[in-house]
């Protein structure tokens, strides 16, 4: 297996400073691109989109907290034990997060967003505009526990 090295493109500034499980929908934050590596050209045209996908690193998860087996999401005894790859918890093997959020504006190297579930200081690995055609094709399904978990998330 090969080693993958990633260099953050920027950092989350503002928004929450502590990790919380719910109510991310009202949180406004800024993704600030690394000015040593990027110019405003990297963001040209991004403001034509309403939403972004943000790939980031769960930097506050200690390596010893990483999960590789099954567990109950949020430790809730009413929910089934499911494998780490059957949930979106932060204690993932590579500590990668993916979030969709609303793009509020682009200002220089700053991307203002709402609903990004990453805290201040989070390393951002990539930004992509959300395009409807990248949504799932056909019907989707998920277990009831997942719907219950997400009820207050945004």
TrEMBL record:
Coiled coil: none annotated. Residues 6-139 form the TsaA-like domain. SUPFAM superfamilies: YaeB-like. It holds the Pfam family TrmO_N. The keyword S-adenosyl-L-methionine applies. It comes from the Bacteria. Keywords: Methyltransferase, S-adenosyl-L-methionine, Transferase. One of its GO terms (biological process) is methylation. The keyword Chloroplast does not apply. GO terms for molecular function: methyltransferase activity. Belongs to the tRNA methyltransferase O family. This is SAM-dependent methyltransferase. It comes from Kitasatospora acidiphila.
